[in-house]
Design a protein that fits this description.
By secondary structure, this protein is α/β, with parallel strands linked by helices. It contains 11 helices and 13 strands. α3 links the parallel β5 and β6. The structure holds phosphoenolpyruvate and manganese (II) ion (MN). Manganese (II) ion binds next to loops.
Length: 329
């Protein structure tokens, strides 16, 4: 990764002139870090840009070539405004899939009462079998975002197809990228270009470094931030649906200040283990959890076995607050 540093009094015109020159020289991507001084990060896979030619341009104070590739993930600051439910944490909950107005209203009313700010609900469901419930699509997205708004909530929802991003961006506040899409680079780019925050699930067979690379793609494309979400990985163990890699997520936190949360639902695969998984993540110092809940779990059209009854979610919130308080004592 190449970078150009500007003096603290560099003007927007000087910065724009350098950007233009970089584009002309073949930069594949340029992103800006706005700290005390502006830094341009340049992606130049063809290695065509000669940085020394830039060091004498007006406003430039230095140029550097960095070993570290994923500079956005390494240096971006956490956004201050994505707390939800518990101070200092991002708690998100809601049904796996959006099914009906009654379902969404019952669940979101309850979650608003729990103090949540972000709720989930999938309209486009990436299912293993084409014969299973595929989601309610655009109409479900519009309906659930309206109900969320009525309760003062913001919707987090998965987008699977880059062609749906533009439409969905008017209704949702955070774009979820699912485990099966983590390295779908056109989707990451389109989602990033919306400028919304992205909740990036870890690919079920992805290493932490690959996960970081995927986040960097979204950030370079323009995502407001990335919320990393560990949802369990594929291992030889089949007693749980996936193996929740709590320490992998904690290790990621050593490399980034961006939020890292836990999804115990898709790791556990059954409701009896969901609360433990969320608490393990929070006790490990992660930044929150996203949990599938349902007012009538047995009737859920997708992921019924792991849907947490609402009363159990209240218990999870209570225990999470206690753990958070113990950690910050
Ligand atoms: C989901 O959140 O409902 C989902 C499909 O998750 P994942 O992509 O982690 O399987
Ligand atoms: Mn699900």
């Amino acid at each position: 990764m190449k970078a150009i540093l500007f003096t603290s009094d560099a003007t927007p015109l000087q910065i724009a002139a350098v950007r233009r020159e970089l584009m002309h020289d073949g930069a594949a991507g340029i992103s800006t870090l706005n700290g005390a001084r502006v830094v341009l990060l340049i992606s130049d896979p063809a290695d065509e840009i000669r940085l020394d030619e830039y060091s004498s341009l007006p406003g430039v104070t230095g140029v550097m070539e960095q070993e570290e590739k994923n500079l956005r993930v390494a240096h971006d600051r956490p956004p201050i405004d994505i707390q939800s439910g518990i101070e200092g944490l991002t708690m998100i909950a809601g049904p796996c899939g959006i099914e009906s107005e009654e379902q969404v209203a019952t669940i979101y009313e309850f979650l608003a009462g729990e103090g949540l700010r972000f709720v989930r609900g999938g309209a486009y469901k990436p299912r293993t079998s084409p014969h299973d419930f595929q989601g309610s699509g655009k109409s479900g997205l519009v309906m659930s975002s309206e109900i969320a708004r009525d309760y003062g909530l913001q919707l987090v929802s998965e987008i699977v197809d880059p062609r749906d991003v533009e439409f969905a961006a008017s209704y949702i506040s955070m774009i979820q990228i699912g485990t099966r899409s983590m390295q779908n680079f056109p989707l990451l780019k389109e989602a990033g270009m919306s400028g919304l925050p992205i909740l990036l699930k870890r690919g079920m067979s992805a290493t932490v470094e690959e996960w970081i690379g995927a986040a960097e793609h979204a950030l370079v494309a323009g995502a407001a931030t990335v919320v990393f979400c560990e949802r369990g990985i594929r291992t030889f163990e089949s007693i749980t649906r996936n193996t929740l890699d709590v320490l992998g997520a904690a290790a990621l936190k050593e490399k980034t200040e961006l939020p890292v949360i836990i999804d115990p639902s898709h790791a556990a695969g059954r409701r009896s283990l969901v609360v433990q998984g969320a608490l393990a993540g929070i006790a490990a110092g992660l930044d929150g959890a996203i949990v599938e809940v349902h007012h009538d779990p047995a009737s859920a059209k997708s992921d019924a076995a792991q849907a947490l009854p609402l009363a159990d979610f209240s218990k999870l919130m209570r225990l999470s607050r206690n753990i958070r308080a113990a950690l910050t004592m």
